[in-house]
Amino acid sequence: MSVTSLPSAMPSGAAPLPDVLPPVRQRGRVMTFVVRHPTIVAGGTLVGIMVLIAILAPWLGTVDPTALAPAKRLRAPSAQYWFGTDMLGRDIYSRVIYGTRVSLIVGFSVAFCTAAIGAFVGCISGFVRPLDAVVMRVMDGLMSIPPLLLAIALMALTRASVHNVVIAITVAEFPRVARLVRGIVLSLREEPYVEAAIASGTRLPSIIWRHILPNTLAPLMVTATFICASAMITEAILSFIGAGTPPIIPSWGNIMAEGRALWQVKSYIVFFPAVFLSVTVLAVNMLGDGLRDALDPRLAKRL
């Protein structure tokens, strides 16, 4: 019997075998990414856990974080009160869990607003030469004031609230992003494709949207992560000194401020929110470091 007359191994009406190569290749790519960028994976995982804690706070918290129980004040950590209670009998565990929401809201909001405003101001200043000198002198004036002091001064002019904290920290941080974007725009406007777009009569908003902004996204993402971490620390400092969120709102800074007078005898009141703040800031900074290494072409070639 010839080779051509051998029966087929698969019936004519049977479905073809599934291709197993794409899933294998997909897993290989994931593993390669994990090996090359472990800081992104570790930082992103920790940030994701904190986001889940903030979203699931009503289910993770044991009691109302604002409920007063003077008869149970200053209880040490136990099976009933995992992190103990404060001087008003409030459950510290529930307050720390709900405090995750405040820190993440402030950090993410400040990072987004700072990146958006800084990108807008930097692009306009980099392309419109008559405005460049005026805008940059204003940015230099704001940058001459330490961000924390500027945020404290702005909060002193307004009432304590999460919304005002976001505005104060954004005003203190966005000049640095504006200068970063301006420097990128000044180098990009000399590129041949930008000069060709200008010569062809393309409108300025279209040039910025199509040619400039896409090339600023990578440094903006990296800078935004570090600003997010800095905003969380600044919010905690403002709340710690009484210039941030109202005391009725559970935040890590407020919890530490209420426990500083009892630090030597009831250190757990300060310890647990400080640990959560440190882990969250570390996670965001690790994510920023990983993004910087992954998005920098010079570093990518070494990997």
Kindly list the characteristics that best describe this protein.
303 residues, mainly alpha
Q: Which spans have pLDDT < 50 for at least 5 consecutive residues?
A: 1-10
Cα separation of the termini: 57 Å
The sequence of SSEs as H and E is: HHHHHHHHHHHH
Number of domains: 1
The CATH C-level name is: Mainly Alpha
Please characterize this protein's 3D structure.
The chain has one domain (39-57, 83-302): MetI-like (MetI-like fold, Orthogonal Bundle). It is mostly helical. The protein has twelve helices and no strands.
Secondary structure: elements and pairs:
Blueprint: H1 21-36, H2 38-55, H3 57-60, H4 92-127, H5 129-143, H6 147-156, H7 162-188, H8 192-199, H9 204-240, H10 252-259, H11 268-295, H12 297-302
In a nutshell, what does this entry contain?
This protein is mostly helical. It is 70% helix and 0% strand.
